[in-house]
Structure formats: C-alpha cells, structure tokens
Structure prediction request, 178 residues.
Amino acid sequence: MSVKSLFVGAVSVAVLVMPVIAGSASAETSSAAAAKTVCVSTSGAPQFRQYIIAGLGKWNEAVRNVQLKECAGATLRYVEGSYGQQGSHAVTNGHGQGTIYIDFQQMAKYDKVRITAHETGHALGLKDHYQGPCSELMSGGGAGTSCHNASPNTQERQSIERMWANGYTAPETWSIQQ
Prediction:
C-alpha cells in the first residue's frame, strides 16, 4: 500500500465520519437550545414562595425540554388565598401560561411542595389522575394527606418531555380544579 493511497483512505474516512460527529454534536446542541424557559412570578404568594420554588425545582430536575424560573415577563403566576371547595387549582392553557391559586386550607393539610409541584404540572400540560397512587404527582389530593411525594414519576416526566420537545405553546385556555 502506497503512502498516497493510505492518505486518500484516511481523508475519505475523515470526510465520512466528520458529518456524523458534527451532526451528533449539533443534535445535542439543538436539543439543549430547544429547552423552553417558562417565567414565573411568586409575588402573589409570598407566604408559600419557598414551597413554590421547591416545586419548580422538582420539575427542573426531572425534565430538560422546559425549565421554570422567576424572571421578568412572567407568563405563569402564583397567588395565595382561600378558595373554598375549589382549593388549590390552576387556570392555565397547559403551555406555561396562566395562574396557579394556592389555597391556605390545603397548604395546612397536605404536603406543601407536592401541592405546588402538582399545580405546576397542570401549567405544563398534565391533567389530574385522582385514582393514581402517591407515586403519581398528578394524583394530587386523591393520594391522601400522608402522601409526601412531590416529584413527577417516569410517565409524567416522559409526557412533559414529549409535549415540550419543540417548545409548547397554544392559545387555548382550560381550567383544572383540585
């Protein structure tokens, strides 16, 4: 084998391999770049801010395609108050926009971080599943007052990743009551 044919072979391999390597790197970059940031405001719920932040943290740890943080221009707002039988609930389009109402009575009775993470799940697009076990965050209060799981399970995480894969926005508004 001549040096020339060895050189041509090496260049051919490099030309074939480089697009694969470059494509792999750009896919990772585009995946990371595709992460949508939902800006939230906790100013309407000062007594529960620490629990809201902890609930946001549960989602931020669990998913990559969407991240939630306090920032200017909030599209998702948290407010606290007494909401009677309605309790804590979300009025949202399920795409990171709306208002989450945190109820004083429920916060005194149930796990505080679970409530905020659960309601945030609605803002991200998940619906209630009251018949679910404590391991399902979206089972909400249906799992009882002894349930302290505030993290989304695998199925909930995968649903959010799929829904937010390309940034998730829509004009439709719907309401979830707990």
